Amino acid sequence: MLLGVNVDHVATVREARKDVEPDPLKAAALAIKGGADGITVHLREDRRHIQDRDLIGIRKRVKTVELNLEMAATDEMIGIALKVRPDMVTLVPEKRAELTTEGGLDLKKSGSKIKKAIDAIQAKGIPVSLFINPSITDVEISKELGAKMVEIHTGLYSNVRGKQQAMELKRVKEAVKRGLEIGLMVNAGHGLNYANVKKIVAIKGVRGLYIGHSIVARSVYDGMEKAVREMKKLST
After folding, report:
1. Which of 28, 111, 156, 214 is the most exposed place for a label (fewest CB within 10 A)?
2. CB–CB of 127/151 below 8 Å?
3. What is the pLDDT of residues 71-116, one digit of tens each?
4. 211/4 Cα distance (integer angstroms)
């Protein structure tokens, strides 16, 4: 199972000060050194974290692992994808007011727009994945629209506990199974962390996991002592 590491929130910290650090490109290099099979960046329409220069820089430097560009199905983003040429594109929904992606694509409402994006991007040899809710219907529509793969939204599974979590896990498993049956590659992601990821890892057939926030958060804790120690040494 592949691990794609999302470095968006390294850029979120940087953009809080509009400074040059922390640098998501450096974070991507360290993630690869740590064993990441891919790097994910979400270039949002409002550029709240990842900037165009980040995407271009990461594309130039990330050559040994998969570069996954998350983006909305807009003409602007399609143009950027065709110019930058990531290894894959994941189409995701966007709302300006949301803190993070709140759910999967509404394939019934936006199907024609999504198909246009899929056709344009895949015509240039870049496979497209759709970020969808754990729904058999959404899996089947994804296939009809021509996507090569899907990423099952694990946010609901990640945000509940007990019997509710067991029910959400079952939905994820059923969606994965259906995707494999109809010839889709199936990924999973959103909200996964060090405590809940094992049950998703245990699902047979999942191609890859796409995880960002929990890894960036853990890096703050695991790297803080060393960072302070080095600064203390320089200041005494």
Report:
1. 111
2. no
3. 999 999 999 999 999 999 999 998 766 666 678 999 999 999 999 9
4. 6
pLDDT of residue 188: 98
Q: How far apart are CA 124 and CA 83, in angstroms?
A: 10
- Paired tokens of 9: 């929130």
28, with CB counted inside 10 A (0-12, 13-18, 19+), is: buried
Q: In the block, which residue shows the tokens 């497209």?
A: 128
pTM of the entire predicted model: 0.94
pLDDT for position 94: 86
List, by residue number, the catalytic residues: 42, 70, 190
Name which of 66, 72, 69, 38 is nearest 55 in CA terms: 69
- Could you say which residues of the chain have pLDDT below 50? none
User: Which of the 8 DSSP states describes residue 134?
Assistant: S
Nearest Cα to Cα of residue 150 among 108, 76, 92: 92
CATH number of 2-234: 3.20.20.70
Per-domain boundaries in the chain: 2-234
All residues at 6 or more sequence positions from 169 whose CB lies less than 8 Å from its CB, including other chains: 157, 199, 200
Note the residue count of the chain.
236
Instruction: Scan for tokens 């690869």, then name that residue.
Output: 32
| pLDDT at site 101 | 64
Burial class (CB in 10 A: 0-12, 13-18, 19+), 132: buried
Query: C-alpha angle with apex 139: 134 to 141, nearest 5 degrees?
Result: 135
